[in-house]
Design goal:
78% helix; globular; 2 domains; mainly alpha; Growth Hormone, Chain: A
């Protein structure tokens, strides 16, 4: 689909002189949200022991957050559009800090679960507001590419940094600080956001689609909950199928509502654009194929190689460095060559690295066997994350920037949830088959690795699907990008 024609920029909409300082503030907030998705994973065993959380209920430390975050993202994006992105950004920061404080001082499992859910609520406001602020603050293609480069580096490398931070805080302080650390970060971001971040909001029709919000939120919550049930009940479990089926039904009703209402929560024209639709779909499959890799390698480092949580976290640092380096390169390459083939090369690297991991054995050495694959994957994903963010907001215009950002976040969130549940099931089945085939009494390191390598193989195949979708659907060129430098461009 062709790009929307450029619109002259009025003097009032010229580049904000504080835009780079604003990006620094947005980056702080995004890093906090991304860190929180992984920092708690390392601390989970300590939380469980300290608060007496049962094995059956420990999943709620993670699930309470993902349910609220994934379920409310679309509504959060629309609230940011209508109420003001800076205002919602600051509210999200304040609420996230409050929820983190409550979680950090928790003395019971119930308070911790509630605090994690509250974190998810405010993250659903904060995440789309942050991404949309970049889109409306940077109005020139070269600068926007650099800004998305910073955002992509944080989004891609932050999870690995969170594993390191979680290990350090848990080992040398306590699990409480994996949550309390958010409080000073959020306060700093709030104080910097007030002078440096420029307010923007949608104009024209700003009525809320209440029926759409109800069905979208209920559908996403039900779908995510059904996916999490697959980890414990299996994909054929009654609760898994029931909640996933209900979620899909509610989302189908939501889409029907969006075709009829005059002020939709999710304008379908956002999805209908070929480039944006391709970016959202590719983003979904990236989540499915990539995120379980961290889970498998964490178990390999600790359960097979015998590293401590802190040591395991440190082993992921090269991944963060690789993403940061390649995201910086992507921000330079994007306006020169356009997103299509820059990202295709990134997918090729990531797939190659994932295939290298399938050669892992129980005697593999980190430096020679794991590190090269990690670096190759990270260099590839940096070339993927930046264009994904840029294309997902391509020619979106001021009115829908928040909800378009929310769609990207939702596709990643749902994809990641499905990927972890699906690939974990694949790996567990392969391990069980190894145990049975070799008449073992319990899983051995070789049996565990047999599961991990099967998961990596499926991850590579899913990333290949994402790459094919990207190349086929995303046709935007560097000229198209430059033609939409105006923040007043309309959705096409």
């Amino acid at each position: 689909m062709s790009a929307t024609a450029a619109v002259p920029v009025p003097a009032a909409l010229e580049a904000d002189p504080r835009r780079w300082k604003a990006l620094f503030v947005i980056a702080i907030a995004q890093l906090m949200v991304v860190l929180d998705s992984s920092i708690v994973n390392i601390a989970l065993p300590s939380m469980q022991e300290d608060l007496g959380i049962s094995d059956a209920n420990r999943q709620w430390v993670i699930t309470a957050y993902t349910l609220a975050f994934g379920g409310l993202l679309l509504l959060g994006g629309r609230i940011a559009d209508y109420q003001g992105r800076k205002r919602v950004f600051i509210i999200g920061l304040a609420g996230f800090a409050t929820a983190s404080f409550l979680g950090g001082i928790s003395t019971s499992a119930e308070l911790l679960f509630a605090a994690r859910a509250l974190q998810g609520v405010f993250a659903a406001l904060l995440a789309p507001a942050a991404l949309s602020l970049i889109s409306v603050t940077f109005t020139e293609s070269h600068e926007r590419a650099k800004a998305f480069g910073v955002f992509g580096a944080i989004s891609g490398g932050g999870a690995a940094i969170g594993l390191v931070a979680g290990g350090i805080l848990t080992e040398y302080a306590s699990w409480h600080w994996t949550l309390l650390v958010n409080v000073p970060i959020a306060i700093l971001a709030i104080f910097l956001a007030i002078p440096f971040v420029k307010e923007s909001r949608a104009t024209g029709d700003t009525k809320y689609d209440v029926p759409g919000a109800i069905f979208a939120t209920a559908g996403l919550v039900s779908l995510v909950y059904g996916i999490t049930q697959a980890n414990t009940m299996g994909w054929n479990g009654t609760s898994t199928l029931s909640f996933m089926g209900l979620g899909l039904l509610l989302l189908a009703i939501f889409l029907f509502i969006e075709t009829r209402t005059t002020h939709p929560l999710l304008p379908l024209r956002i999805l209908a654009n070929r480039n944006r639709g391709g970016a959202y779909l590719a983003s979904f499959f990236v989540g499915v194929g990539l995120f379980a890799m961290f889970l498998f390698l964490t178990f390999f480092f600790q359960g097979v190689l015998g590293y401590t949580p802190l040591q395991s976290g440190l082993l992921f640092l090269p991944f963060s460095a690789g993403v940061i380096i390649s995201a910086g390169a992507a921000s330079q390459l994007l306006p020169r060559f356009g997103p299509r083939w820059v990202t295709a090369s990134g997918f090729a690297l990531a797939i190659t690295g994932m295939i290298l991991l399938t050669r892992m054995t129980s005697t593999s050495v980190y430096v020679s066997d794991i590190l090269p694959a990690l670096i190759i994957i990270s260099l590839g994903m940096g070339l993927v994350f930046v264009p994904l963010s840029a294309v997902s907001l391509f020619a979106i215009g001021n009115h829908d920037a928040g909800v378009a950002s929310a769609v990207l976040n939702t596709s990643q969130q749902i994809g990641g949830s499905i990927g972890v549940a699906f690939l974990n099931t694949i790996a567990a089945s392969a391990t069980t088959a190894f145990v049975v085939a070799n008449n073992l009494d319990a899983p051995t390191p070789d049996a565990l690795v047999a599961g991990f390598t099967k998961g990596f193989l499926w991850g590579a195949l899913i990333l290949a699907v994402a790459g094919i979708i990207w190349v086929v659907l995303v046709t935007m060129t560097k000229k198209d990008m430059a033609a939409n430098d105006s923040p007043t461009a309309h959705v096409g």
